[in-house]
Amino acid sequence: IYLFCNKLKQINTSLQNMETPLEQALMACVKNKMIAFLTSNPQYFDEAVTLAATDKQPYAWRSAFLLWSCIKENDPRIKKHISKLINSISGKNDGHQRELVKILSKMELTEKQESILYNLCYELFKDINKKPSIRHTALKYMLKTAEKYEGLANEIHYLLQDRYLKTLSPGVKRSIQRMFEE
């Protein structure tokens, strides 16, 4: 019985470690092939969204990267997952956070969801140890939101202080200043 139970545990572990067809496609490393897979296999879309919200790397980041490339503005397939995606942002690595914010930036959010995502983006931008790409993406979302809610412009203007910009490259600084001016 002991040997049988150990064998069952080994089989279960092996099954848990097996890649799904979506995970295999995500490891193809060629974006066009990943897009083609998800486009021709729409039954994996919800799995891709769920995976994007997890910490199961390297699949989670790749799934978020893929989704952003496969969705339209306010894509109805993402709507039911918006809160899950917002709630999953904290604690992820910078690149993964960037891809999740990019996905959410394409969606129409409720006021509550906008508020939560705006606050997350505000904190991401203020963290001078974050990579410039997530800080840039976070600011883009904040500026988009500020177009709807004029009072936020002063809050964003506060972020243009040198202490928040000094760790950015000159090119990213110019891009941020241009975005704010527009």
Provide a brief overview of the structure.
This protein is mainly alpha-helical and 182 residues long.
Task: Pick out its properties.
182 residues, 0% strand
Low-confidence stretches: 4-16
> How large is the share of residues in beta strands?
under 5%
Using only CA atoms, what is the Rg? Answer: 19 Å
- For the secondary structure, the number of strands is 0
Which H/E pattern describes the elements? HHHHHHHHHHHHH
Largest sheet: none
Helix content: over 70%
Q: Would you tell me the structural class of the helices and strands?
A: mainly alpha
Described by the principal axes of the CA atoms, the overall outline is globular
Distance from N terminus to C terminus (CA atoms, Å) equals 71 Å
Oligomer: single chain
Quickly count the helices. Answer: 13
Quote the average pLDDT. Answer: 86
Description of the molecule:
With 182 residues, the chain is mostly helical. The protein is 72% helix and 0% strand. It has 13 helices and no strands. Helix 4 packs across helix 5 (59-70) and helix 10 packs parallel to helix 13 (170-181). The longest helix has 17 residues, at 132-148. The chain is globular, with a radius of gyration of 19 Å. The termini are far apart. Mean pLDDT is 86; it is low at 4-16.
